[in-house]
Design brief:
The protein is built from 27 helices and nine strands. Helix 6 (162-192) packs antiparallel against helix 10 and helix 20 (554-574) packs antiparallel against helix 21. By secondary structure, the protein is an alpha+beta fold. It has helices spanning 37-59, 66-93, 97-118, 121-134, 140-155, 162-192, 208-220, 232-241, 245-256, 272-288, 294-299, 307-336, 345-357, 361-364, 370-385, 471-488, 510-516, 522-528, 540-549, 554-574, 583-594, 610-613, 623-641, 646-657, 665-673, 680-685, 691-695; strands at residues 194-197, 226-229, 388-391, 403-408, 414-423, 433-438, 441-443, 446-448, 451-458. It is globular and about 80 Å long. It has a five-stranded mixed beta sheet. It has a two-stranded antiparallel ribbon with strand order 1-2. Bound molecules: zinc ion. Zinc ion is lined by residues 479, 483, 509, 512.
Length: 696
């Protein structure tokens, strides 16, 4: 057996000749064993230079057609992704200073290449010519490839007059910088704050690991007692576990006022102006492209199409969730025996949940050994979609723990493969995800089967026991495997629309959230559980307590998500240069409508809301709930016909999983479900009565 791979050594400063660069090979799988940090930048430079030459040739074609222009462009993009994918993957799972340097050096090269491609007028003209002249002779999927490309050209500002085009580019660059500034402020504000504890009583309720860490930190700083810092795990632990209400309040205040004009760091990293500038530039970019607002610009690539459609969707959920949330909050205050402040809610909720369900994630662990769970998960996929999943030995990966699987059709043809990197280890990014290693293609220039990375961060096996999962872990594994099936079971031949590519961003979580449902199903729970010592399945009584936790405080959780979503969406649709962002006013209005937990006047939650100010969720926070509705409603179809009904599963495969981005997400859903998605499916899944049923 290969020794656990450490960080690949940098052997010499000389750069490998392009010919031996393992990143530039055309092998079916990346040559992980040979890839070294010093290969990264030369490979990408070489590839992008070659690609630019090819782009120049393609842009100069006298009479371009789908076959002579668009297929080669698909091939080109496929090649870039295929070379870059192992690099960004290794950067995430086997990080080192050398690799990070190579990776970071390539980011601006890649983004410059993509921008030049997206703003290429000759290519844009060629696409439009092909669309107008040849559309009748093209297959629907080919027309869709063109439609998406033309859309993305426009959204990148290709069709603007020169001055506007330049302005658009500037605005986009300024946005990148402002968004980075926003994040830096949040980070700096959090890093600047800590809490010094000298009375051990104040630590009551906190777990040993955290206390030990705090003690060590105090020691390092040469002070007595304990130092607690304002990172997310500590914040969450304090708010749920600390018995001292004073400690909870201090943490809540520091957290909820990060990078703002209030709280302990008031004014020092204030994001107020940064937020205004971000909103201003987003609005300007949208207006340059003739959209009334940034929200409309964002919707141009989504499943939801109009502002009222999104708002109505959120309001409808709120009408049902709010009564449930009010009842849950009243119950919680009754349980606590007094009125609750914002910093009390997490603490008492945790206690109520323990009192009511008496089930903890740690207690569940022995029942979910990874081999058993994997076997059960594969059995679910095999039963639903008629595929076979088998491990392939001897595939060299980036670490000895990584396993490799092939997925075969009912008649034994390989349709795709995936790596599974299951365990946490140093230099590996936290969290879980699925990513594309190789995308499916079937082009005149060659074919490729899809390959995926499934990455988790489970507790590794011990000396005398297998890896044991919490039920949260099990749900995570099912979630990522759902993304994996979307990538691997695709039947689309063009890389830009295959698998998860080209899928509307508010619909891309449908397969993953859909598959999560199976991790809660009694029949599946019996199949995937088996005590590592003796093999007995999860006791039924424990199982029903576990299932009951799924809807615990579902109303409170939902109104909180709806508050964020409405705030985000209204802000991006109502912005006007005259009145500015009205950030705090809009938040106050939204809270009056949906919020249940009282929030202090000095709360400055928007100032650290990185999802929408720094990240990709601008005018998109609603997507969480949107995709949950799709998933719940899709699963409801299975509940109606039997959760393993083959015909229903085949329809789901044909209409959604296999289709990639080749079809409008709503049309695909309607094809599967026979009607539009129904938000009530999500409410029922969480035990919340839909508002219209309450009044009926
Ligand atoms: Zn996901």
């Amino acid at each position: 057996m290969r020794a656990a791979a450490a960080v690949p050594p940098v052997r010499s400063a000389t750069m490998a000749a392009p010919m031996d660069n393992p990143l530039l090979g055309q092998d079916p799988l990346p040559r992980f064993v040979q890839i070294r940090p010093e290969h990264v930048e030369p490979a990408m430079r070489e590839l992008l230079t070659r690609s630019r030459v090819r782009l120049g040739e393609l842009a100069a074609l006298p009479a371009p057609t789908f076959a002579t222009l668009i297929e080669p462009l698909e091939e080109l993009q496929h090649g870039i992704t295929r070379t870059w994918s192992p690099v960004s993957h290794l950067n995430a799972v086997l990080n080192s200073a050398a690799l990070r340097a190579g990776y970071n050096a390539c980011l601006p090269l890649l983004s410059a290449y993509q921008t030049d491609l997206a703003q290429s007028e000759p290519l844009f003209r060629a696409f439009r010519t092909i669309a107008e002249r040849d559309a009748a002779g093209l297959a629907p999927v080919q027309r869709r490839v063109i439609e998406h490309a033309v859309r993305d050209f426009r959204l990148a500002g290709v069709a603007l007059p020169a001055a506007d085009k330049a302005r658009f580019k500037t605005v986009m660059q300024e946005l990148t910088q402002l968004q980075a500034k926003f994040e830096e402020n949040v980070l700096d504000a959090a890093n600047a704050w800590s809490w010094h504890v000298t009375d051990p009583d104040e630590l009551r309720g906190l777990n040993e690991m955290l206390i030990e860490q705090a003690r060590r930190r105090a020691h390092e700083r040469d002070v007595r007692g304990w130092i607690l810092t304002l990172d997310q795990p500590t914040y969450v632990a304090v708010l749920t576990d600390a018995e001292s209400a004073g400690l909870r309040r201090a943490f809540y205040e520091a957290w909820a006022t990060r990078a703002s004009d209030r709280g302990p760091g008031a004014g020092r990293w204030d994001n107020s102006q940064v937020m205004e500038q971000i909103l201003h530039r987003r609005h300007e970019a949208a207006r340059l492209l003739d959209f009334p607002s940034y929200a409309e610009y964002a919707l141009a690539t989504r499943m939801a199409h109009t502002v009222p459609e999104v708002l109505e969707f959120l309001h409808e959920l709120a009408r049902s969730a709010r009564p449930a949330a009010l009842a849950e909050f009243a119950e919680l205050e009754h349980f606590a025996g007094h009125a609750l402040a914002a910093w009390d809610v997490g603490f008492h909720s945790e206690r109520l949940q323990r009192a009511r369900f008496a089930v903890s994630q740690e207690e569940l662990r022995p029942y979910f050994p990874l081999p058993r769970v994997l076997g059960g998960l594969f059995a679910v996929a095999e039963r639903l979609f008629g595929v076979h999943i088998r491990e392939r030995q001897g595939v060299a990966a980036w670490h000895a723990d990584v396993r490799f699987f092939d997925i075969e059709s009912a008649v034994g043809h390989r349709v795709g493969s995936f790596y599974l990197d299951a365990y946490a280890r140093p230099n590996k990014r936290s969290g879980a995800w699925m990513d594309e290693c190789v995308g499916r293609k079937r082009l005149a220039s060659g074919t490729a089967l899809p390959v995926a990375y499934l990455v988790c961060n489970f507790l590794p096996p011990g000396a005398d026991r297998p890896a044991l999962l919490t039920h949260d872990d099990v749900v995570t594994l099912f979630h990522e495997f759902g993304h994996g099936l979307h990538h691997l079971l695709t039947r689309i031949d063009y890389p830009s629309l295959a698998g998860i590519n080209g899928v509307a961003w508010d619909a891309v979580e449908l397969p993953s959230q859909f598959l999560e449902n199976y991790a809660w199903h009694p029949q599946v729970l019996q199949q995937i559980s088996g005590h590592f010592d003796g093999g007995s399945p999860l006791p039924l009584e424990m199982q029903s307590r576990l299932i009951a936790t799924r809807s615990f405080q579902a109303g409170l959780a939902m109104v909180r998500q709806l508050e964020f979503a409405l705030f985000d969406f209204r802000m991006h649709s109502e912005y006007s240069p005259e009145h500015g962002g009205r950030v705090l006013e809009i938040l106050a209005e939204v809270r009056r409508e949906v919020a249940v937990v009282p929030v202090p006047e000095w709360n400055r939650f928007p100032h650290s809301f990185g999802h929408i100010f720094a990240g990709g969720y601008a005018a998109g926070y609603y997507s969480y709930k949107w995709a949950e509705v799709l998933a719940a409603d899709a699963f409801a179809a299975f509940e109606e016909s039997g959760v393993f009904d083959r015909a229903t599963a085949q329809r789901f495969l044909d209409a959604i999983l296999a289709r990639g981005g080749s079809r409008d997400a709503l049309d695909a859903f309607v094809e599967f479900r026979g009607r539009k998605p129904d938000p009530r499916a999500l409410l029922r899944q969480h035990g919340i009565s839909p508002a219209d049923e309450l009044t009926a």
